[in-house]
Amino acid sequence: MKCFASDNYSGIHPDILKAIVEANADHEISYGDDTYTQRAKKLFQDKLGNVEVLFVFNGTGANIVSLKCCTLPFETIVCAETAHILTDECGAVFQNIGCSLMPVHTPDGKLTPELISPVLVHKGNVHSAQPKVISISQTTEVGTLYSIDELKALCDFAHQNDMYVHVDGARISNAVAALGKDLKQATIDCGVDIMSFGGTKNGMMMGEAVLIFNDELKANARFYQKQSLQLYSKNRFIAAQFLALLKNDLWLKMATHSNEMATLLAKKMQKIPEVQITFPVQANAVFAIIPERVVEPLRQKFRFYTWDYQTNELRWMCSFDTKPEEIDEFADTLKSLLANV
């Protein structure tokens, strides 16, 4: 069955699968002291400069390790009400860190200094949890994109208020591709303190990288990684995937392709009068509303998720392996259902 449900549904890029097999050829030192891990870290450092790199299993783990580095139990994390750490991680922040989350309503999934300012009114008040981190997703959970200027403004605001900026970068590759900048320009140069660099949603079997730019946050990071069950004894099998991902900018090529497929899908949908696209299509996600009568018949052939059951809003995701002919088939099927159901 063709899938537009999630970029997690896709398989493993052949180059990455090959890298896993090659890493299996001999014995290597465990717990990240292997040659593959050191080489993968060096590739990130070549791109980003003085960065601490930790490899972890998954996106939730990456967020937990990152946010542990930034917070004490009496502090709180400011995030959008749609943030993955709030809506999709089963209370992992509360359970594993002990601090709270402070959700902020946004019209487009993006936080701004103006939206955050009101929640800082009790900063310094001993009776209130203390805002310490602004956590954003780039791209956001509704597929929108922080511009370079928007991210810089947010980081400047955070640092002026003695706060850190954390980026959930599960889809940071798609964001960098869409921005037309390099990874450094789109992250550390904007003032980001700590972030994840996603691999699972962009052609890897498993694994994310935690990238720590702010020296204050590096001291205890490896201890938090171990304590959070994210230190893999055979870490070379995560690192080898990143070696393949970063080689010749494979990560960027795959993200560019998935973004282009979403743009193509949006163009096809815009030609169908009964389809309402609900958010700007800026990366690899399309959010839309279609007549309710055709949702389930369409889902019989193409998997996808309902984003908002109250409004019948749907989410269609494109991946590194999405093909133009699959989008053509999706559009043709939807048009046929609208005409006949």
Which descriptors apply to this entry?
alpha/beta, Aspartate Aminotransferase, domain 1, Aspartate Aminotransferase, domain 2, four-stranded antiparallel sheet, 13 helices, globular
CATH homologous superfamily of the largest domain, by name? Type I PLP-dependent aspartate aminotransferase-like (Major domain)
The rounded Rg comes to 20 Å
Mean pLDDT: 97
Give the domain tally: 2
Label the overall shape: globular
Percent range of helical residues: 25-40%
Strand fraction band? Answer: 15-25%
CATH topology category name of the largest domain: Aspartate Aminotransferase, domain 2
Give the terminus-to-terminus CA distance.
21 Å
- The overall strand count is 13
Describe the overall structure.
The chain is 38% helix and 17% strand. It is globular. By secondary structure, the protein is α/β, with parallel strands linked by helices. The protein has helices spanning 14-23, 35-48, 59-70, 84-87, 92-96, 113-116, 148-160, 172-179, 221-227, 236-246, 250-270, 295-299, 324-340, and strands at residues 2-3, 52-56, 75-80, 100-104, 130-137, 164-168, 194-198, 208-212, 276-277, 285-289, 302-303, 305-308, 313-317. It folds into two domains: 2-7 and 250-340, Aspartate Aminotransferase, domain 1; 14-248, Type I PLP-dependent aspartate aminotransferase-like (Major domain) (Aspartate Aminotransferase, domain 2). Helix 7 links the parallel strand 5 and strand 6. The model has no long low-confidence stretch (mean pLDDT 97).
